[in-house]
């Protein structure tokens, strides 16, 4: 019997937590992922407060409504998660998945005086002129006003490099969002390693960088397949993920 949208989304999102933990991109028991399950994007799944990514099952995910302010009072909802994810799902209905992380290399780049990702290879070029930057970090994002501000910064873009904080990626599917945040961390790892040599960077021309970025945008099936392969690895390792 075919799974409902919510059932499939639960499995996909639970697998994403497991994958990110497997890749050591998680932050203790912090950070949050969400995914919309309604046509208007306002009903969404979110991980419960302070549960390790490696232990999350499909049934653990909370079903919330971005228009229902009582969600902020749920004992298993982290205030920063509600402030950020609740507002993005309320204000950006086209967004189906929102991943927020503090991965080491992307966060290191976000801590530069002027956070930027110059196109020096195929991975970094994926983000040429396609990343919004927040330079106004003011502490824990625990108010709806802060969530609204962050949602506004995503205008026309799907990635937000959060200065002195981390990164947020949005997408129309969980698979695309996962592959995107994985590639972004890989890109920043390459960039930081290249910078660490102390040698000048060979930066791609704008023309080549734009061509490469468009090439990435034409292979969303690659992103989905990357996710499906990683998801199956997680299910094989622990079928309880599906519970």
Topology diagram in text:
Blueprint: H1 5-22, E1 32-36, E2 43-46, E3 62-65, H2 79-91, E4 97-101, H3 104-110, H4 122-125, E5 132-134, H5 144-153, E6 159-162, E7 166-171, H6 174-196, H7 206-217, H8 220-237
Parallel strand pairs: 5-6
Antiparallel strand pairs: 1-2, 1-4, 2-3, 4-7, 6-7
Helix pairs in contact: 1-8, 2-5, 3-6, 6-8
Textual characterization of the structure:
By secondary structure, the chain is of the alpha+beta class. The chain has one domain: 3-Layer(aba) Sandwich (L-fuculose-1-phosphate Aldolase). 43% of the residues lie in helices and 13% in strands. The protein has 8 helices and 7 strands, in the order H-E-E-E-H-E-H-H-E-H-E-E-H-H-H. Strands 3-2-1-4-7-6-5 form a 7-stranded mixed β-sheet, sandwiched between helices. Strand 5, helix 5 and strand 6 form a beta-alpha-beta unit. Helix 1 packs across helix 8, helix 2 packs across helix 5 and helix 3 packs across helix 6. The two termini are 16 Å apart. 42% of the residues are buried.
């Amino acid at each position: 019997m075919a799974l409902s949208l919510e059932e499939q989304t639960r499995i996909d999102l639970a697998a994403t937590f497991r994958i990110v933990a497997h890749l050591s991109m998680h932050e203790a028991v912090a950070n949050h992922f969400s995914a919309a399950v309604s046509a208007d994007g306002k009903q969404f799944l979110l991980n419960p407060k302070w549960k390790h990514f490696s232990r999350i099952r499909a049934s653990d995910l909370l079903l919330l409504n971005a228009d229902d302010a009582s969600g902020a009072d749920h004992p298993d909802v982290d205030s920063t998660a509600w402030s950020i994810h609740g507002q993005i799902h309320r204000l950006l209905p086209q967004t189906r998945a929102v991943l927020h992380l503090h991965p080491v290399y992307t966060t290191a780049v976000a801590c530069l005086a002027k956070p930027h990702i110059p196109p020096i290879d195929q991975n970094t070029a994926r983000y040429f002129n396609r990343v919004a930057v927040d330079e106004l970090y003011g502490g824990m994002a625990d108010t709806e006003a802060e969530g609204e501000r962050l949602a506004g910064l995503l205008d026309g873009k799907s990635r937000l490099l959060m200065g002195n904080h981390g990164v947020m990626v949005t997408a129309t599917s969980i698979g695309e969002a996962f592959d995107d945040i994985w590639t972004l961390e890989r890109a920043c790892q390459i960039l930081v390693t290249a910078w660490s040599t102390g040698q000048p960077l060979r930066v791609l021309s704008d023309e080549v960088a734009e061509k490469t970025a468009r090439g990435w945008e034409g292979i969303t099936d690659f992103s989905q397949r990357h996710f499906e392969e990683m998801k199956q690895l997680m299910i094989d390792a622990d079928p309880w993920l599906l519970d």
